[in-house]
Amino acid sequence: MPGWTTVAIVGGGPAGLMLGALLARQGVNVTVLEKHADFLRDFRGDTVHPSTIELMHELGWADEFLALPHRRMDRVTMGTPDGPVTVADFRHLPVRLPYVAFMPQWEFLNFLAQKASEYDAFRLLRRTTATDLITAAGQVIGVRAETTTGPLELRAELVVSAEGRDSVLREIAGLTSGAVAPGVDVFWFRVSRRADESVPFFQSGRGGSLVAVDRGTYWQLAYAFPKGRADAIRADGIQPFRDRIAALLPLPADRVDEVRSFDDVHLLGVRMDRLTQWYRPGLLFIGDAAHAMSPAGGVGINLAIQDAVASANLLAPALHRGRVTTHTLRRIERRRTFPTLVTQRFQAAATKALYAASTSADPKTPKFLRALPPLTRLTGRFIGLGIRPEHLK
């Protein structure tokens, strides 16, 4: 089945839907290809940072957006062997709503899809899996996909890969990536939460690190450990795993027994890498497809959103002129490489320091955390807004 669009975006995640909405808002015909039937998948990143909430204000969507279910956090606290430490303070940021919103990603994506669908130039194709690129004379001119009704050939002025870290178009395009750091792996699971109960957002101690996200009626927990250790942890059995969590989480130990077996525990393989080049003629990579991020700081979604805004600002004028050149694609890469590079280096350094402390025979608060209290506004700005916040043009 042949088709045509101005921009074909592969991947209906935060970067793909935001770019699609912003381009359609400026009258550019956009088709987003999403391989799933819906966005309802648990244990996905869902920290919406102040930079993204401010963008909702710029678009006039903030009231509707904040009516969705979410929990708010205006400071990041961390439990350490020496007591709680405030890692970042968002309350003084120069934005209208200075806090992080924890919102299930399916709520966020459904919202973006609904707002984008209000523009006639936007189209979302669900259950549509990209399988190949269409090229001619060294230029990408479209994408091939499989749909529930058969194969699809979609011609486009520009193809954008926003598929995430498992992008199939990376290898097809022949683009190479370099690992930034070995990274970590994460076990996601949940335990019930009692009314008015609070725990540090991040807990580090001997044996690992734990993130606790307040979901109202339950805690969504992420246990981070050195990459490649998942099978060994499983082999030890569920009770030793529960003991590790109980040692880190300041809650009654009986709560951890709600994790009945490893069937209740979901593995997230984490890596940090970055494409050496984000584009080919007629093809652009953004978000995790261009730079896979660690969960540290929860910045992945927001960095992807910033990529989408910068891309829309530079692509829309070129598309209205009738052609996107490699010069335009190179400008997008150059604009977004620096904030990506700095953020990944910060994530790698922080992860290394935390694991050096958690594997020590006498664990202590890492030196960089002991130095943080006077700098919490600065770290709040770094995490909450990023290195180069993007705004609508």
Your description of this structure?
This protein is an alpha+beta fold. It is 34% helix and 29% strand. The protein has helices at residues 14-25, 50-59, 62-66, 105-116, 168-173, 230-236, 238-248, 300-321, 326-358, 367-370, 376-385, and strands at 2-10, 30-33, 47-48, 71-73, 75-80, 83-89, 100-102, 122-125, 129-136, 139-147, 150-161, 177-181, 184-192, 202-205, 208-214, 218-226, 266-269, 272-275, 279-280, 283-285. A hairpin with a 2-residue loop joins strand 5 and strand 6. Helix 1 (14-25) runs parallel beside helix 4. The longest helix has 33 residues, at 326-358. The protein starts with a strand and ends in an 8-residue tail after the last helix. The model has no long low-confidence stretch (mean pLDDT 88).
- Give the low-confidence spans: none
Outline: globular
Alpha-beta content class? alpha+beta
Beta-strand content bin: 25-35%
Give the tags:
globular, alpha+beta, seven-stranded mixed sheet, 11 helices, 393 residues
Layout: helices, strands, pairs:
Elements: E1 2-10, H1 14-25, E2 30-33, E3 47-48, H2 50-59, H3 62-66, E4 71-73, E5 75-80, E6 83-89, E7 100-102, H4 105-116, E8 122-125, E9 129-136, E10 139-147, E11 150-161, H5 168-173, E12 177-181, E13 184-192, E14 202-205, E15 208-214, E16 218-226, H6 230-236, H7 238-248, E17 266-269, E18 272-275, E19 279-280, E20 283-285, H8 300-321, H9 326-358, H10 367-370, H11 376-385
Task: Give me a quick take on this structure.
With 393 residues, the protein is of the alpha+beta class. Helix 1 packs parallel to helix 4 and helix 8 packs antiparallel against helix 9.
